[in-house]
Amino acid sequence: RARYFFQQLICGVSYCHFMQICHRDLKLENTLLDGSPAPRLKICDFGYSKSSLLHSKPKSTVGTPAYIAPEVLSRREYDGKTADVWSCGVTLYVMLVGGYPFEDPDDPKNFRKTIGRIMSIQYKIPEYVHVSQDCKQLLASIFVANPAKRITMREIRNHPWFLKNLPRELTEAAQAMY
After folding, report:
1. pTM (2 decimals)?
2. What's the domain count of the chain?
3. Mapping DSSP to helix (H, G, I), strand (E, B) and coil, where does residue 158 land?
4. Which of 55, 95, 103, 107 supports an S-S bond with 50, CB 3.0-4.6 Å?
5. Long-range contacts of 140-146 (CB under 8 A, 24+ apart)
6. Active-site residue identified among 25, 45, 107, 134
7. What CATH number does residue 98 fall under?
8. Are 41 and 61 in contact, with CB atoms under 8 Å apart?
9. Alpha helices in 19-174, H assignment, sequence order
10. CB of 93 within 8 A of CB of 141?
11. In the predicted structure, residue 152 carries a pLDDT above the cut 80
């Protein structure tokens, strides 16, 4: 089920990026599900979003700490779209594991430790959670400190784990409009 919602999240964020909007506060809490039998995911709360057509490159540290990409913490200009990729990865991890990837398991409320673990890419998937190798590889490609080396939205949309059981309406042909 996590894959089904992640596929929709990635397609929605890809559309935002195509429209030159970076969200900058992607998280599970900023997604909604409609009431249909096969729930459709909707992205909400664009309060921190930026348009690359109307605004300068982002440099402010905004967003929810557990979801923030390392470059956002640097207080320098960053690519909001690449930071959104990181936040999508955290959202996937939360859907799979039920916890945040960079919180210290012994001290989860310690913000400084969370930031340290984000900066050093210190996370692991608990042994009791079954996650395929393809999914682990996708997460490892997302959780890359250097934003220039992080997987792109297009690469995620072509990743084997993402493509498995991809709903017809989300296929590349349906996305040809953007």
Report:
1. 0.91
2. 1
3. coil
4. 55
5. 142/85, 142/86, 142/88, 142/89, 142/92, 143/86, 143/89, 143/101, 145/70, 145/119, 145/121
6. 25
7. 1.10.510.10
8. no
9. 80-97, 111-119, 133-142, 153-157, 160-163
10. no
11. yes
DSSP 78: -
Quick check: is 171 in a domain? no
Q: Note down the domain range covering 29.
A: 2-166
Answer yes or no: is 175 within a domain: no
Distance CA 33, CA 40 (A): 5
Is 25 assigned a catalytic role? Answer: yes
**Token pair 């400084």: residue:** 112
pLDDT tens profile 60-86: 666 678 999 999 988 788 899 999 999
Which tokens sit at 65?
């700490």
pLDDT for 172? 63
Amino acid at 131: V
Q: In 3D, which of 4, 6, 1, 7 has the Cα closest to residue 174?
A: 7
* Residue 30 in domain: yes
| Cα pseudo-dihedral 31, 37, 38, 43, rounded to 10 | -20
Residue 118 included in any domain: yes
Token pair, residue 72, equals 């956002």
- Residue pair 58/71 in contact (Cβ under 8 Å)? The answer is no
